[in-house]
Structure formats: structure tokens, C-alpha cells
């Protein structure tokens, strides 16, 4: 078949010898990605469609998930031609459930069957990731750069190798060109190759030869295994139909370098953990890839033993451990609510919940949590056992009020009750309280304070002295003394004084007048009218 008008593509069957219902490359890993390819005369994919030379042909492809699709035609004469992508159809990304026809409606090219006569096949490769086909496909020239079915198979296997096995799948459509009467053959061909070559090929458990190898097999399901010393076995299931040639290419993976780890203990029967995974009980011998391993031995009544070992290729690493009897016990501390600080013999060790490994003995435990009463207990830790202490903490309903006052002899009242004089420290129920501080000659202090559970509230109160006002009215201008200290001059017979409340000795002195001395008690605002007598 050839593409006419603006481009030319040959459709033949060169890859026919290598295709199976699963594709030229068999994916040994099941995948939910599916691709289906068929021709217009055979939508049911029976493989019996016949095209005469000169007839047009249409190719259809469908995917069940978003995928990049690549189509190749394999001619009966061994020529391989690209269908998708090509110089006119570069978009090879199909959405889930999309069916696309080639050539599409209104295309500038068409496919016409030109021969040679024989069986042709169309290979579809679908991948969740775009494939790098630069070494295989020249899109501009519509040419495949590799020759023959074996070359295409190897090239595709290299391209697909980095793709995760679940991310690609293949399908094939068969049709006949010319006057060939499609008579289904009774056998199929299995071609097996490997990298490196020379590997033993087992078919259904029986040795058949070494790679590269071509076998005639009955149609149906077969188990293929490829083995080579120093490499991991490669296994795949094939299901060829009559006349098909299935290509199996095994990219063999080298076996990891291995050594032996032999573990014994006194006493025996200890559990052996390798990198955290239980592998058995002592005595134990393990074949392991070379490298470093974390080994732990556990036996009831004995302390765990941990160490690191190195296993070398072809060597036996021996680990003989004498286990030590347990002389410690476990103390599990819990509280409601959790998060309480844990003090063990006065030392902070963490917060609840907390598990501690301790020497056998008796310990003083204290739990502290803001807003709760401290919890204290004495516990006994026995070796080889776990002691559990669960404490329900009691919320604190009181707080502390610390009050310092000046003057020192001032009276302190809380909620109307005299609680002391000077500095006081009180334990009060949590909540609001009224504080009053009073002292003679000072302004009274009043305040409402909030005492919080488990907290200490500190207050410093300094009372403000109260001033007394004295207004003097005299019949002459005189000098004024209080307690012997001159405090002013009554000009025009008037003087206003502000002093602390209390008892004073008032002395008035004026030239040509008798000195006046009298005791006065001053508080608040007072007015005195006095008269001095001449000498």
C-alpha cells in the first residue's frame, strides 16, 4: 500500500514475523492501558481482511487512557513504513476513549494498496510518555531508519526500556494484499533474544537452547524463561496465534553480589532483626547482597543487642553474641491531661506520656502542669518488667496575692476583711477580689484584681499623703511658725498654708505685739481668725 497525492508511504509486512497479539515487544507486566488498531475491512480484528492492489485502505486506532500512539506498517517484503507520526500527522497524542482514522477526513493524502502480495501487519505502540524515536524514525522523509524486523524490535526495546512497565502496551492488526487466500497456519514462531546473548531458553520448563533462538511452537499460552549465570532469571508468558511470530527480548539484570551472614547467640533462640525486619531466630544463616546491615538481637529477659556488620561478596560474616540479662525495668508515666512535666528524683526527664528504662529501684515521681496541683508518688521499678503510673491531675482553684505597701503600717483589706498591715501574702480562690489599703493622713487605695489558678499576683501600693489647708486671718501683719519652723508671713493679715494633717503648735510674731502661741489640729480645710494684742 502506498500514500498518494502529497506523500508516499509503503504498507507491507516486514515486521510480521515479530508480532503477537501483545505486540512486537511483549510486556510481562499487566497494565490497565489498552490500545486497539484495526483496518476498515476488519473492525472485528479476525485477521482475514483482503485488499486488492489499487484499493484504498483506512487504519483506525483507539486508546482507553490518554496516551502517545505510534503506528508502523510492516510489508510482506520486509519494508517498514511509518504511519503515525508522519510529515502530515505529527500530533500523535490521543485522549482517553478517542478513536482516530488515518488518513482522516479531508486529509491531503491517502493510502492505496500497491503490494507486494502477502500478509501485512500494522503495529501500534501506546505509551503514557512520549517516546524518543529520533534514532528510528525520520518524520520529514517518512522513513524508518532501522532495517528488518529484528532491527526494529531491538530499537524499540531500547526506546521502551526506561519507561515503567505499566506505562506502555502494544497491539497489531493483520490484513492480506493481492490474490493471497488467507489460510491460517497451524503453528507459530517464537524468537527469543537477550542482552547479553548466550542465555539458556526454557519453554514451559524445558531447555530449548541458547539465545538468539527461533522455535516453532503450537498456538496458545506458553511460559518462557531466560537464564544466564550471574543474572536474574527473566520470565514472561506469551500467547501466539497460528502463523504469528512472537519476539521475546530479555534485558537481563545482573544478580546482586551476595555473601553470608551467620548469627549465633548465648543463649540461643534470640530474634534476629536485619535493618528493622525480623528474619528469624538464632542460630541463623542468611544469604544477603553485599553491604552494611543493622543487626539487632532480642530475647525475653535479656537486654537487646545492636550492632552493624558488613557482608562481603563470597564471604561468610559471623556474629556471635553473648546476651546480658536485663537489670533494668521500664517505667511508663501517663497523665490526664497529658503534657505534664515529669521529674524523677528531682530531675526533669520529659513530658507525659513518657516511657523510661531505669535501673531496678524505688523512684520519687512528680508531675507538674500549669493550672493543676502537683502530683507526687513513689514507684518501684523491677527488672524485666514495666511499671505503669497513670495520674489524674487536679485543677488548681486558688492563686496567690502578694502585696507590698507604703507606708509600712497601712492596713490591707481584701473583700472588706482586714488581712494585715504592711506586706501580706495570701492564698485566694481564683477570680476577682477587691483590695483596699488605708492609712491615716493618706488617700485610700482601692482596686479590683484577678487571681488566676496556680499563679502568683504581685502588687506594690504606695499611698498618697492627704494635704490639710489652713487659712489665717489676723489683725496685723505677722510672721507664722508651725512647730517652731517659720512657714510664712501674713501680709495684710492673711496667709494660706497647705500642710499634712495633724497636731501643730502655731506661733504668731509681730513687732509691737505680744507673741501668740496655741495648739491646732489641722485636717481638711480650716479657717482661723486670730487677734494679736499690742504690747
TrEMBL record:
Signal peptide: 1-16
Matches recorded under Pfam families: DUF4384, PEGA
InterPro entries the record matches: DUF4384, PEGA
Domain PEGA as annotated: residue spans: 188-255, 259-326, 329-395, 399-466, 477-532
Key word Signal present: yes
Keyword Oxidoreductase attributed: no
Key words of the record: Signal
Domain spans labelled DUF4384: 51-130
Protein's name in the database: S-layer-like protein
Native organism: Thermus brockianus
Amino acid at each position: 500500500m502506498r500514500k498518494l497525492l502529497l506523500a508516499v508511504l509503503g504498507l507491507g509486512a516486514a515486521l510480521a514475523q515479530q508480532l503477537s497479539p501483545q505486540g512486537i515487544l511483549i510486556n510481562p507486566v499487566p497494565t490497565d492501558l489498552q490500545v486497539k488498531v484495526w483496518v476498515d475491512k476488519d473492525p472485528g480484528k479476525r485477521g482475514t481482511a483482503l485488499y486488492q492492489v489499487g484499493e484504498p485502505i483506512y487504519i483506525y486506532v483507539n486508546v482507553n487512557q490518554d496516551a502517545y500512539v505510534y503506528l508502523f506498517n510492516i510489508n510482506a517484503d520486509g519494508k517498514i513504513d511509518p504511519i503515525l507520526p508522519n510529515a502530515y500527522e505529527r500530533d500523535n497524542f490521543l485522549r482517553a476513549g478517542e478513536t482516530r482514522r488515518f488518513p482522516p477526513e479531508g486529509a491531503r493524502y491517502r493510502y492505496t494498496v500497491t503490494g507486494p502480495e502477502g500478509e501485512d501487519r500494522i503495529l501500534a505502540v501506546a505509551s503514557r510518555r512520549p517516546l524518543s524515536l529520533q534514532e528510528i524514525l525520520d518524520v520529514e522523509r517518512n522513513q524508518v531508519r532501522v532495517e528488518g524486523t529484528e532491527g526494529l524490535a531491538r530499537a524499540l526495546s531500547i526506546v521502551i526500556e526506561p519507561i515503567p512497565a505499566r506505562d506502555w502496551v502494544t497491539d497489531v492488526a493483520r490484513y492480506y494484499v493481492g490474490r493471497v487466500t488467507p489460510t491460517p497456519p497451524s503453528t507459530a514462531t517464537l524468537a527469543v533474544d537477550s542482552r547479553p546473548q548466550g542465555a539458556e531458553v526454557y519453554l514451559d520448563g524445558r531447555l530449548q537452547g541458547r539465545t538468539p533462538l527461533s522455535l516453532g511452537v503450537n498456538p496458545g499460552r506458553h511460559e518462557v524463561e531466560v537464564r544466564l549465570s550471574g543474572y536474574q532469571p527473566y520470565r514472561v508468558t506469551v500467547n501466539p496465534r497460528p502463523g504469528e511470530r512472537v519476539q521475546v527480548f530479555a534485558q537481563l539484570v545482573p544478580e546482586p553480589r551476595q555473601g553470608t551472614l551467620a548469627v549465633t547467640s548465648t543463649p540461643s533462640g534470640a530474634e534476629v532483626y536485619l535493618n528493622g525486619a525480623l528474619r528469624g531466630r538464632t542460630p541463623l544463616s542468611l544469604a544477603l547482597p553485599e553491604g552494611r546491615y543493622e543487626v539487632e538481637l532480642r530475647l525475653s529477659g535479656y537486654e537487646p543487642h545492636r550492632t552493624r556488620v558488613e557482608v562481603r561478596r563470597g564471604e561468610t560474616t559471623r556474629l556471635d553474641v553473648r546476651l546480658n540479662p536485663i537489670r533494668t525495668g521500664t517505667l511508663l508515666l501517663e497523665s490526664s491531661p497529658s503534657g505534664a512535666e515529669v521529674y524523677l528524683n528531682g530531675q526533669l526527664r520529659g513530658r507525659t506520656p513518657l516511657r523510661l528504662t531505669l535501673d531496678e529501684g524505688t523512684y520519687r515521681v512528680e508531675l507538674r502542669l500549669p493550672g493543676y496541683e502537683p502530683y507526687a508518688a513513689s514507684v518501684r521499678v523491677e527488672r524485666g518488667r514495666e511499671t505503669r503510673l497513670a495520674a489524674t491531675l487536679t485543677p488548681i482553684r486558688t492563686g496567690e496575692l502578694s502585696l507590698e505597701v507604703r507606708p509600712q503600717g497601712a492596713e490591707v483589706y481584701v473583700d472588706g476583711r482586714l488581712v494585715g498591715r504592711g506586706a501580706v501574702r495570701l492564698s485566694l480562690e481564683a477570680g476577682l477580689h477587691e483590695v483596699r489599703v488605708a492609712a491615716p493622713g493618706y488617700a485610700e487605695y482601692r482596686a479590683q484584681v484577678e487571681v488566676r489558678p496556680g499563679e502568683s499576683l504581685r502588687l506594690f501600693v504606695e499611698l498618697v499623703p492627704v494635704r490639710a489647708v489652713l487659712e489665717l486671718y489676723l489683725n496685723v501683719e505677722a510672721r507664722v511658725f508651725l512647730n517652731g519652723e517659720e512657714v510664712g508671713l501674713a501680709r495684710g493679715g492673711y496667709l494660706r498654708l497647705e500642710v499634712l494633717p495633724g497636731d501643730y503648735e502655731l506661733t504668731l510674731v509681730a513687732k509691737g505685739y505680744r507673741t501668740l502661741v496655741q495648739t491646732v489640729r489641722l485636717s481638711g480645710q480650716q479657717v482661723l481668725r486670730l487677734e494679736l494684742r499690742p504690747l
